TrEMBL record:
Keyword NADP applies: yes
PROSITE patterns named in the record: CYT_DCMP_DEAMINASES_2
Organism, as annotated: Erythranthe guttata
Protein's recorded name: 5-amino-6-(5-phosphoribosylamino)uracil reductase
Signal peptide as annotated in the record: none
């Protein structure tokens, strides 16, 4: 049995018998090499989505078939741009067309497959795919193995790397599948966002001169790479000293389209009143502080539009747990040595990216990238795993994983197998059902789920909105006779993902509140209700999922949205959950009414039949 480890990510094959087991000794090396090459291509495609929207599971798909000359060729491929957009599998099927019949589909990761979203599996099955090769199983417990079982139940041959296919070539390919979704894998295992500590230092290990001056240690090429790293992150974290000394912007201005939230950790709130981070017109900023710290400065930050979150005891661990609740997958730490040491000691740093510049500045008091960790012997030193070296201009980028992650293999028998034996066993017995991200068990309740709705646009014509979020954000600007508002509305309609639609709508509302329709606050719940009713009336499986929650309280588990969500400590108004429960009640009432009418008609027919 083979096990592959990436910084402690152990994925041994499950101890169950597999009829399709293949190894280098039982399958030709050329066939396995092709399988590995196509899976690696799928992983490369999946990586294209990183940096364009808020990070999410990265999916790629390659469909390969046999040509008339007997050669294996690519018939179609695709990648998931963002949650709520066309699945990679469906894109590949559309590109391949009739060549899908009898072809093989290569997926870097097992696709989502649950009641609210079965489109990826359905696309491959209906297209006539005969074999599916999967890089890794889905790391989330409620999704792990479901698509594999669905494929097999439809008669498709399924091979999973490291389980059904094993050899040196496959092992190297498996590593690429793990790397492209490292944030999701670490988050699933540790229940905190995937954290990367980034810093630039000189050859003698300094991050600034004795005076604190640090511009610039690394080269322009290295700084461009940092912009790309930020674009792949949900948030960028610094400490108060970095704000005071460097006055950073922390933007991804040369990276992808995604703009991560800036976060400042400061217990005392001893921060300057003038700082680039207080400008939130383009990118939001959050300040994490200790409860009760400088109330007057908290009010000042709030007046600037900066979000302030108080913690009983401020430390990296509680901030990461909070960001986990907010749905963050990946966080980039760009802090000084003191905060970096605290983050490492807390066990929440998973990877290190160190840019080493060919410079020497010396200085006894010049700071180093990591502060005191309490080590007195070299045997205590922390060693990076899976180290990678890359020259970036004149600098050397040293990357490696630091924090091992527990094995993600589910306990056998799984919850699905247990439920098949005893139908009374359910993983969702709680009286409160939380939903937030689209990959959650009830993620289809989210406004960001991939369920287009047909409702009127600004001209009153029926229009297929890609998601509820597109419709909701666009209607902020309906009816306004202003070219900027009309342009924003059109951009929202054409946004590639719900995340982009939300970002466009919120940004314009924040920068130009005068462009938002004057009655917005009084009509926004009605507009949301209209969109939700259309969504849950259009899709029978969603309607069934909603009705199946009868008896449970529905809560959108957003810790920061106090209107639509439940808030961090239950202080939110949870209007999205309320509207869904209202809809559920209406659907149940309609079903009962229809059943009663059917019973009366049946009774009437029976009466008429009596002699």
């Amino acid at each position: 049995m083979m096990a592959f480890s990436l910084a402690g990510l152990n994925f041994p094959s499950s101890p169950v018998c597999r009829a399709s087991f293949t190894s280098c000794s039982s399958s030709s090396p050329s066939s396995l090499s092709l399988d590995a090459a196509y899976i690696k291509r799928a992983a490369e495609l999946a990586d294209r989505s990183s940096g364009f929207t808020a990070p999410h599971p990265n999916f790629g798909c390659v469909i390969a078939t046999t040509s008339g000359t007997g050669e294996r060729v690519v018939a179609g491929e695709g990648y998931l741009y963002a949650q709520g957009t066309t699945p990679a599998e469906l894109q590949a099927v559309e590109a391949a067309g009739e060549r899908c019949r009898g072809a093989t589909a290569y997926l870097n990761m097992e696709p989502n497959h649950y009641l609210g979203d079965q489109s990826a599996v359905s696309a491959l099955v209906q297209a006539g795919i005969s074999r599916v090769v999967i890089g890794i199983r889905h790391p989330l417990q409620h999704l792990r193995g479901k698509a594999v079982r669905a494929f097999k139940s439809e008669g498709l041959l399924v091979d999973v790397l490291g389980e059904d296919l094993q050899c040196k070539t496959i092992e190297e390919c498996l590593k690429s599948c793990l790397l492209v979704n490292a944030p999701l894998l670490y988050r699933a295992a540790c229940r905190v966002p995937f954290s990367v500590l980034k810093y630039a230092m000189t050859l003698d290990g300094k991050i600034a001169t004795s005076s604190g001056h640090a511009s610039w240690i690394s080269s322009k090429k290295s700084r461009t790479r940092v912009f790309e790293l930020r674009g792949r992150s949900d948030a960028v974290i610094v400490g108060g000293n970095t704000v005071r000394q460097d006055n950073p912007r922390l933007t991804a201005r040369h990276g992808g389209g995604h703009l991560p939230q800036r976060i400042v950790m400061s217990k005392s709130l001893n921060l300057p009143e003038v700082a680039n981070l207080w400008d939130v017109t383009e990118v939001p900023t959050m300040v994490a502080t200790q409860r009760g710290a400088k109330r007057s400065f908290q009010k000042f930050l709030a007046s600037k539009g900066v979000e302030v979150v108080e913690f009983e005891i401020l430390n990296p661990k509680v901030v990461m747990e909070y960001l986990y609740d907010r749905g963050c997958l990946s966080v980039l730490w760009e802090c000084g040595g003191t905060l970096a040491a605290s983050a490492i000691s807390s066990g929440i740093v998973h990877k290190v990216d160190a840019f080493v510049a060919p410079k020497i500045i010396g200085g006894r008091n010049a700071p180093s990238p990591v502060g005191e960790l309490g080590m007195v012997e070299m045997s205590q030193a922390l060693e990076l795993i899976d180290v990678h070296y890359e020259q970036v201009g004149p600098d050397m980028l040293v990357s490696g994983f630091l924090h091992p992650v527990p094995d993600l293999t589910p306990v056998i028998p799984s919850m699905d197998e247990t439920s098949a034996i005893d139908p009374t066993v359910s993983p969702y017995e709680a009286s409160i059902i939380f939903f937030y991200k689209t990959w959650d068990p009830y993620g289809a309740f989210s406004n960001f789920s991939l369920h287009p709705i047909c409702l009127p646009d600004e001209n009153g014509d029926n229009y297929s909105w890609p998601s509820v979020e597109h419709y909701y954000q666009a209607y902020k600007f309906v009816g306004l006779d202003d070219p900027v508002a009309r342009n924003c509305l059109e951009e929202i309609k054409n946004a590639k993902s719900p995340e982009e639609a939300a970002r466009l709508g919120r940004k314009t509302q924040r920068q130009r509140p005068d462009l938002v329709r004057s009655d917005w606050e009084s009509v926004k719940t009605d507009i949301m209700y209209r969109a939700l009713k259309c969504k849950f009336s259009t899709y029978h499986n969603l309607n069934s999922m909603l009705i199946s929650t009868v008896g449970s309280v529905l809560v959108e588990a957003s810790p920061h949205d106090l209107f639509w969500g439940g808030g961090r400590d239950g202080e939110g108004l949870n209007y999205l959950g309320r509207l869904l429960m209202q809809l559920r009640s209406e659907f149940l009432s309609d079903a009962k009414s229809n059943a009663d009418n059917g019973t009366r008609r049946q009774e009437g027919n029976e009466v008429r039949k009596l002699p």
